[in-house]
Description:
The complex is a heterodimer of chains A (876) and B (184).
Chain A lengths: L6 H13 L2 H7 L9 H11 L11 H8 L3 H16 L3 H39 L3 E6 L2 E6 L8 E5 L7 E13 L1 H4 L5 E3 L17 E2 L4 E13 L5 H9 L7 H32 L2 H14 L5 H18 L2 E3 L4 H7 L2 E4 L11 E7 L6 H13 L6 H7 L10 E7 L7 E8 L2 E9 H6 L1 E6 L2 E4 L2 H16 L3 E10 L14 E10 L6 H10 L3 E5 L4 H10 L7 E3 H5 L3 H10 L2 E3 L3 H13 L4 E4 L6 H6 L2 E5 L4 H6 L2 E3 L4 H42 L7 H14 L21 H35 L9 H30 L13 H17 L5 H4 L7 H30 L1
Parallel strand pairs in A: 9-18, 9-21, 14-17, 18-20, 19-20, 21-22, 22-23
Antiparallel strand pairs in A: 1-2, 1-3, 3-7, 4-5, 4-6, 4-7, 8-23, 10-17, 11-12, 12-13, 13-16, 14-15, 16-17
Helix pairs in contact in A: 5-6, 5-10, 6-11, 6-25, 9-10, 9-24, 10-25, 11-24, 12-24, 13-14, 17-24, 24-26, 24-27, 25-27, 25-28, 26-27, 26-30, 27-28, 27-30
Chain B lengths: L1 H8 L3 E3 L5 H13 L10 H11 L3 E3 L2 E2 L2 E4 L7 E11 L9 E10 L3 H18 L2 H5 L4 H17 L5 E2 L10 H4 L7
Amino acid sequence: xxxxxxAPEDAHRTAQxxxxxxxxxxxxxxxxxxxxxxxxxxxxxxxxGPNSVSARRPNAIIELLKKxxxxxxxQLMVICILSYIFExxxxxxxxxxxxxxxxxxxxxxxxxxxxxxxxxxxxxxxAMVKTTCDVLRGGVEVTVPIDEVVPGDVVILAAxxxxxxxxxxxxxxxxxxxxxxxxxxxxxxxxVVLAKVDQELAAQDCPNGCLMGSNVQSGSARALVLSTGLxxxxxxxxxxxxxxxxxxxxxxxxxDFVWLMIRSMLIMTTITFGLDAWRTHKPMxxxxxxxxxxxxxxxxxLPMILAACLSKGAQTLARLKVVMKRLDAIQNLGAMDIFCxxxxxxxxxxxxxxxxHVDVIGRExxxxxxxxxxxxxxxxxxxNLLDRAILSRTDLDVERSCRKVDEIPFDFQRRRMxxxxxxxxDHLLICKGAVEEILAVCEKYQVDDEIHTMIPxxxxxxxxxxxxxxxxxxxxxxxxxxxxxxxxxxFGTADESGLVLLGYLAFFDPPKETAAxxxxxxxxxxxxxxxxxxxxxxxxQKVCADVGMPVKRVLTGAQLAAMDKAxxxxxxxxxxxxxxxTPMQKEQVIRSLKAQGHTVGFMGDGIxxxxxxxxxxxxxxxxxxxxxxxxxxxxxxxxxxxxxxxDGIDEGRRVFCNIEKYIRMGASSNFGNMLSVVGxxxxxxxxxxxxxxVLLTNFIxxxxxxxxxxxxxxxxLISKPRQWDISGIRSFMLxxxxxxxxxxxxxxxLMWFIICPAVCGGSWSALTTxxxxxxxxxxxxxxxxxESIVTQTLVVHVIRSARMPFIEARASWQxxxxxxxxxxxxxxxxxxxxxxxxxxxxxGLGSTFWTALLVMTISYIALAxxxxxxxxxxxx
Amino acid sequence: MRILLEALQxxxxxxxxxTSKRSTFEFLGRVLEAIPxxxxxxxxxxxxxxxxxLGNTAIAPGVACPHARVEGTSxxxxxxxxxxxxxxxxxxxxxxxxxxxxxxxxxxGQRVGFLKEMSGLAKAIVAxxxxxxxxxCETLGEVRHGLLDWVTVALNETTPDARARMLRLSAKSxxxxxKDTPNG
Lengths: 876, 184
């Protein structure tokens, strides 16, 4: 499709084609009522391109440049530029700028690379979740992927369908759309066939238009495709209409952490600058040093670590046949502590069989089966599992003696549907649906071949049969009929009145063998399962009992509707089964649980689940779900099994645990080092580490953490929901930081009082020449440089688990390798040919230093483990 | 209405002296349990109250039909009638008092008979002017005559309302069965 920006012309053309006559519309798009031929469609696909508003992959360079807009990267760039401008020593300025620049490039490129990889992986996975659409090709109904729909196609729409393009309705039956994504209007709007629209209406207001971005709430229709892809109203407006979910728990946590670090950085930088300027009376030098401290406190690898952890998680989940449509939903999976699901297909086999067809007092009735079969056979709307179960039960010879007259499609308000059949001169309306809804429109009932008047007492009696069947775990629907004179040809919902109740159909959906295990698995992981269903409470209770799900309280939609907000909140938290819920009530329940501080997952596959899927922290659907449910979900399971979800929860927690490792390190270790710098600035007559060495330490340390996404996670850390805990991170920072700082001060003491005086021939005050003082400083810097790298790098082994590091809990080989390499490289650098230029001298340290370093490192790890363990255990 | 007729012929119409629902149920329950074909202590009263939980059994202004469905294969349904001139508080929610209480004992196998009886009674109430006619009666004997009029009217009316003409379709042969349904 052309990329030209001609949205106003497209909108005008669509409106014109909706307002004109049908013939004009067909002529304009070169089509006819029986649709295009396959060849014509192929040619048009070539000409107009795929029907997608996001068909083109974003430009890689632009995506890369966008990375430079990240707050942490901007901060580093500002520091890099300022230190280059204000550094007097040109060579030093270049080295420092190169180091900071190197950090920026490593962070930006690694995160770009990881995100590109995961974007590709997700694109591949999403290709497995095809959204399809029924179209007429050469008069024959075929199913095609939505992106292959072309202008001129005639699409066939039913409840649950997504409107695939901008279309004109050419045939409709009680056809209602939700246009909320397009117009924000939450109430469904009816769309009808109109010969012509006389008013000057916009395309979305034309009563015969159905536009991309809408979905079918009820009824059925055929529609002519007028425009596709970017030429649709939705395509033109998609940038403005991208429906952004509220910030998820993960996004809120990341934002809070970044601000915690930025606040810490500003405080520490200001203190360092003040102390250094006061001591040296050189504000410019103090300013440059403060900038390097700022770099030290910047968790510049955070975007990369996030991208890598989430991307790796997405790929692992893909192997488990879970497609993550939004990467950050992985963490929400791990954070989820309440899992709500419709029971169909998750707890049960989703293989419904028609078990019984009975009259109003529970006797087997062939009439009930026969009428139900005709209803299912002739209906053209959303054919559900119940219809399939009825049709598979028998096959009647209707073609010779019956003719379909009309149909009143299903919708979720009426919860029933009807077909009208002509037979032997009469028109027979056969209606099936939810028992309460059918009984509400019945005035008579039939026993044997006698039709009697229905009175409320009899209604109660007849309901008794329904209750008995439901208690046995059957899903029950009622069947009724009414005869009309043959002169009546057109029927509407008003004709569903004065019916004769014929009987009930009882379906059975056996519990899955794996359901009990999955429920047990969820409970073991601290995730509470709740059933949110439109079905009745008796069936739900039976299914829960069969799968061993404990049920303490059952609520119905009617009970919830009568509650005030406080009672509602308490009730939904307590209840295990909420039955007979409307789609809006499902959404209300999810929002209430979220507002009470829970991370809520919702699994659903029907059109009635869409609101809840969008409201949940993690919306989960399945590959066999209706299109609009798949579109609304954050994750799509390619296998409809809760066991897969349990694995997904574990993976989500692993991902978050690894992200947490970086965050704990970044918060506590950097904070400790900078505490040391600030203290040393006040106590020492020189800076404790030159700016270039601060940057170098940070660079090596960053490298060591690139393997965190590949680290293993201890099983006890994933036994409970993992959520962002900023106060926990702050606690880590405030406890572990000083521990790190304590060993820094020990190193300062070692260098100041023992090593440096021994090598330089006296204490600082006793040294009289600049050369000896310079030697003292270099040796001091070298000692702290090595200690800093060793302790800062190895601490990841301490904070990764509450168990004893290296002995009870071992890191992955990748993380072990990078930490060992970082330590070895740091030590080697002090002996390397560049040591002199960097202001390092490893040769002068001597065996006393190395022995002391070994003792201090072991002591540090032991003390850090003791402090970290207490904090980690609190989270278990 | 034959069940009601049989009860009238057997003299199971009584004046109710108490005006509460519970005492009425207990009284009529004892009358039913006194019928030789109904076992003693068969829990008629409890069963009637249990049924009442599903919905109030008042079927028309002034008339209620509490009933006890019990396990059993007996061929007969039995009923007993209570009349209260001042009316009893039947907890209908609309403050209307019930004057005629017809309590039924229904074995499980006789549900169809009960449904038909109820439909017939409902029609008779409409056709005869309902409870207002009976309220004019001054003695229990007059009430009994009024009720016999109900039975007569009901038996003379066409019962049921209509006869169903059900569609008769045969199953397809194997070859025909392979054809697609209309929407694939």
